[in-house]
Specification:
Blueprint (H helix, E strand, L loop, with lengths): L1 E5 L11 H13 L3 E5 L12 E4 L2 E4 L1 H11 L9 H29 L1 H12 L4 H22 L6 H19 L12 H14 L6 H6 L3 H14 L7
Parallel strand pairs: 1-2
Antiparallel strand pairs: 1-3, 3-4
Helix pairs in contact: 1-2, 1-7, 3-4, 3-5, 3-6, 3-7, 7-9
């Protein structure tokens, strides 16, 4: 059986990693049988979670995992037109290559209160001394990545202004539809839900979260997916 390696569940949402949440959501939306294996990124094949193992094959990076699931099990995008596939790719890049970095900044750099919540969720399973050393080392590494990406070179208000633009784009495109392309979920929905639930559904406070919660259609979207595909988590 396919095994998905990801962080332990926390905060009452599927996963504290948008990318782990993306893969588990795709698996659930596609009805692909799988087992969940709690893990830490230090042991992952690319140094990041999630990764999967299936039929003797180990695969990391959510984009390559999705392609494998599409070709091996079920392609949720089969009914999309070429234009819709292009939009899906562009929107996923908005989510995963831009908005994600705003969310990352919120957790690892914005306030010490957020960092402590994030630290406990990720590193709390480790012994205290090892936990503090590992957490501080990873925090410096992530902050360097945020700066290298370019997002970390801006002031906080500028960073969140950029994130709000992304939230507007997602809210406007979703509109009143159940899913981004209509009545059935696609890969874009797995990607969008993975990040949106990690912005508005977790105890990381920021202007980005406050703004996302003003978008009633995005809030309803998160609730709809939780109730439809994660009934075992008892989301309010």
């Amino acid at each position: 059986m396919l095994k998905l390696y990801q962080f332990e569940r926390s905060w009452g949402i599927p996963n504290l990693s948008p990318f782990c949440c993306k893969i588990e959501t795709y698996l659930r939306m596609a009805g692909i049988e799988h087992d969940i294996k709690p893990a830490l990124p230090m042991r992952a094949p690319k140094g990041k979670l999630p990764y999967i193992s299936d039929n003797g094959k180990t695969l990391g990076d959510s984009r390559f995992i999705i392609e494998y699931l599409k070709s091996t099990y079920k392609n949720l995008d089969n009914g999309l037109t070429g234009e819709e596939l292009a939009i899906s790719t562009a929107m996923q890049r908005l989510l995963e290559e831009h908005l994600f970095w705003v969310a990352l900044y919120s957790r690892w750099q914005y306030t010490d209160e957020n960092w402590q919540v994030n630290k406990q969720a990720i590193f709390g399973v480790l012994p205290p001394i090892i936990r503090d050393i590992a957490a501080n080392r990873w925090r410096k590494k992530i902050q360097q990545q945020i700066y290298g990406h370019g997002m970390g070179r801006h002031q906080a208000e500028e960073i969140f202004a950029l994130g709000k633009q992304d939230i507007d784009a997602l809210s406007d495109y979703l509109g009143h539809k159940p899913y981004f392309f209509g009545d059935h979920p696609t890969t874009l929905d797995a990607s969008a839900f993975g990040l949106l639930i990690n912005i508005s559904g977790c105890p990381i406070e920021s202007p980005l979260k406050e703004y996302a919660l003003t978008k009633e259609n995005l809030t309803a979207y998160n609730t709809r997916i939780m109730h439809s595909f994660y009934p075992d988590l008892h989301f309010p």
